[in-house]
Amino acid sequence: MTTRPYSAKRRLRRYPWILEAILILLAAVVFVPVYYLIVTTFKSPEEAALHPLSLPAGLDFGNYAAAWEAMVYPRVLANTAIVTIASVIGIVVFSAMAAYGLARRSHTLHRAIFYLFLAGLMVPFQMGLVSLYKLINALGLMDSLLAVIFVNIGSGCTIAIFLFHSFIQSSVPLELEESAFMDGCSVPKTFWLIAFPLLKPVIATVAIVSTLNVWNDFMNPLLFLQSREHNVILLEVFRNIGQFSVDWTSLFPMLMLGVAPLMAFYLFMQKYMIKGVAAGALKG
Amino acid sequence: MNQRTWKRELNYSLFIAPALLFYVLFSVYPFLSMFYYSVTDYTVRKITNLSFVGLDNYKHLFGSDLLRTGLKNSILYAVLMTVFQTSLGLVLAVFLDRKLATRNLLRSVFFMPAVFSPLIVGFLWGYLMSTSDYGLINQGLEALGLGKINFLGDKDIALYSIVFTQLWQWTGWAMVIFLANLQSIPKDLYEAADIDGASGWKQFWRVTLPLMQPSVNVVAVTAMIGGLKVFDIILALTDGGPGNATQTIMTAYIKTSFNEGFYNRGAAFGVVFFGIVMAITLIMMRYLSKWGEKIR
């Protein structure tokens, strides 16, 4: 009985000022590259070389305007958004359906299929790129956004099925569905009306993790999109950086435009994003 | 079986079909076909009427400097990333789990680089590490009276420079996963340890770490597999150079297959890579679960 106030006092006594100061300093250092990226977009090469970390002399958006036009930004942004939205919807819907089917049926075949999906968490499928390239060609999908979307769904569904499956088994009660069947509800109707709405937390997790993966994926667009009309943001950045020029600061607005959409998304949704990333890694 | 139950069973199978179709067609089939191509003479000059060449492509692997370096670098890179991402992420998480006034802000700053594309992070760090007049880090070194360091052009340190940029990017990601795990540890365990008079260090080793096993497993295995597959950041920072000093499995594979047109050699390399990933992952999982048993 006497130890309790002592320990409470001990916990209260020392607020870790030194620790906090060190962490703030570390965070400032970690933030420097991002800060440098932002301020350099407003500078001329001379100004950036002389005063790399000072605030820009003026807010000249000319560099941005030039980068916007050089990248045909509205087009690449639209392409990236189409690829991301279509892939994420495909991954969420198909994975939720498959996980549901696999969780509600336990024949040997279903279990085998589940393990086949699980294997995808480990196997480096990138090694099949040569065959995949051939396949995309044979299907007539080369240089189409659909190629990237399909490949994203094929690789993104493994982790998603894993997450949906463990959630359905742990938190979606079978009783509800049984009574729906008694009332003559079909399987698709039961799934969409009863089970799917209950999956909301996992849907958010899967959507966040897949959005990050798909938006930032560079290899698939590099291999399957060739014409400029079908470029995504990263391809356009890659293309422009390749043409190294003396006017190197003019490339910074392109880098900024490359990270800006996800950065904005992060600033507004950081709580959900951090939660989603943690849940995606740990649940299951 | 009456018609209604039969229809129900069919419905469940139809539910699995779309995901299975995409997965088998775009992931499993291309992967499996590499085993076949790895024993043929499939190159850019011979794409039909393939003939069987035995293990020739595999023999070539051992003589190829590009592929051997790629393998060595990827393993070194993955091990470094695994060790440092796990340990630094754990330290950050333990500190940021304490009630600090600024902890939410600090957490979001540390995590932020994880939402950027590795390609763009690569270009950005390419400028920061440059040896030309505007390279920020070398400007700093010179201001301190030290000499310039050719971070990306010196073959002995280029790979380590790349690891550094990726730790900058991904340590916050590991931290977030560790934090979620830490928050699930009941606080009364610490109170009990306090009453027993256990020091902060002892509490970390005896209470915290054993209960952190799930997240340590996830972070370590993900860092290892991701590390072995590293591609974007290399392309943006060094493109495998100087010489072949920073080639990795993926850059070497893409160079051999797509640039040089030796699909068969790329395929053989892929098969070897698959074996290595499986071996390392299984050894790691076994080691980690043994560790889990020992501390329990």
Automatic annotation (TrEMBL), chain A:
One Pfam family, short name: BPD_transp_1
GO cellular component: plasma membrane
Gene3D superfamilies: MetI-like
Residue stretches making up the ABC transmembrane type-1 domain: 77-269
GO biological process: transmembrane transport
Signal peptide stretch: none
Membrane topology: Multi-pass membrane protein
Keyword hit for Lipid biosynthesis: no
Database matches in PROSITE patterns: ABC_TM1
Subcellular location: Cell membrane
Transmembrane stretches, start-end: 21-38, 76-100, 112-133, 145-164, 191-215, 248-268
Keyword list, A-Z: Cell membrane, Membrane, Transmembrane, Transmembrane helix, Transport
Principal cellular location given in the protein's record: membrane
Keyword presence, NADP: no
Similarity remark: Belongs to the binding-protein-dependent transport system permease family.
Name recorded for this polypeptide: Raffinose/stachyose/melibiose transport system permease protein
Taxonomic lineage of the native organism: Bacteria, Bacillati, Bacillota, Bacilli, Bacillales
TrEMBL record, chain B:
Superkingdom, taxonomy of origin: Bacteria
InterPro entries in the cross-refs: ABC_transporter_permease, MetI-like, MetI-like_sf
One Gene Ontology cellular component annotation held by this UniProt entry: plasma membrane
Keywords, comma-separated and alphabetical: Cell membrane, Membrane, Transmembrane, Transmembrane helix, Transport
Transmembrane segments: 12-32, 75-96, 108-128, 157-180, 216-237, 267-288
Membrane topology value: Multi-pass membrane protein
PROSITE patterns, sorted: ABC_TM1
GO biological process, one term: transmembrane transport
Domain ABC transmembrane type-1 stretches: 71-284
Localization terms from the record: Cell membrane
Main location: membrane
Secretion signal span: none
Entry's family note: Belongs to the binding-protein-dependent transport system permease family.
Descriptive protein name: Raffinose/stachyose/melibiose transport system permease protein
